[in-house]
Design brief:
copper; transport; mainly alpha; transmembrane; 61% helix
Length: 69
């Protein structure tokens, strides 16, 4: 378990804040009902998923053993 005063915990907390700030800011942009901005958000999400999505896949490793023999 990490200490609350560790640098890793501080960095994780800062990244959590930054992610939420960006998420809520984009939500407010979408709520302006400005269609060009809204479709720009959708296009940005689609392009981001296209390029970053393959990097986010998790490959499962099958553990085979002699557990039953």
């Amino acid at each position: 378990m990490e200490s609350i005063s560790s640098w890793r915990h501080f960095a994780s907390s800062f990244l959590f804040f930054l992610q939420n700030f960006v998420d809520y800011s984009l939500m407010l942009v979408a709520m302006t009902y400005n269609y060009p901005l809204f479709f720009s958000l959708l296009a940005g999400h689609a392009i981001g998923y296209f390029f970053v999505g393959p990097l986010m896949t998790v490959k499962e490793v099958e553990n085979t053993g002699n557990c039953c023999s």
